[in-house]
Specification:
The protein is mainly alpha-helical. The chain has one domain: Protein Binding, DinI Protein, Chain A (2-Layer Sandwich), CATH 3.30.910.20. It has a two-stranded parallel sheet. It is rod-shaped, with a radius of gyration of 29 Å.
């Protein structure tokens, strides 16, 4: 009997503790879609990316043309000439790959540009969420746009519109 009372008291205490916690949901895609600076930065990134991509494709086309020319003329070349042309093609291809890596690599120019344009906006949104969480006493705020395990969330705990109001972008 004593064990049953202790177990019951423990369960009531645990149940009371879990009810005291407050949770909220945000939809980062929804929030960022309503921030004009984010859309502008995204458009800027797309333009720069297309420009750099076309530059890389042009250089790759030059390499392909050199290779096709080499294949048609290879039978008429001396061994030294073959080696020289092969090295020229390989060097141009390597330069093109280096350029591609410079623009689109993990620490490339596109990554740096994205960081410089997007990070301040994301930090501003994060700070607004943190301020709202502190003001309203939320212990946990989940992003439903990136959390694949959330099957359903009540609209009552979605604070995305509150975040937009806090940022000054009322719906």
């Amino acid at each position: 009997m004593k064990k049953l009372i202790i177990l019951f008291a423990f369960l009531v205490g645990t149940l009371g503790f879990t009810h005291a916690q407050k949770f909220a949901i945000v939809d980062m895609e929804y929030i960022l879609k309503h921030v004009p600076a984010y859309e502008s930065a995204n458009e800027q990134l797309n333009q720069v990316s297309k420009k750099w991509q076309s530059e890389v494709e042009e250089k790759m086309q030059v390499v392909q043309n050199l290779y096709k020319t080499y294949q048609t003329e290879v039978v008429f070349m001396s061994p030294e000439m073959k080696t020289k042309r092969e090295n020229e093609i390989v060097d141009k291809e390597k330069a093109t790959q280096d350029l591609k890596k410079k623009y689109f690599g993990p620490e490339g120019e596109l990554y740096k540009k994205r960081q410089s344009l997007m990070k301040p906006i994301q930090d501003e949104v994060y700070n607004a969420i943190q301020t709202l969480s502190n003001d309203k006493g939320y212990q946990l705020v989940l992003d439903k746009s990136s959390a694949m395990n959330i099957i359903f969330s009540s609209p009552r705990i979605d604070i995305s519109d509150d975040v937009l109001v806090k940022l000054g972008y009322s719906k």
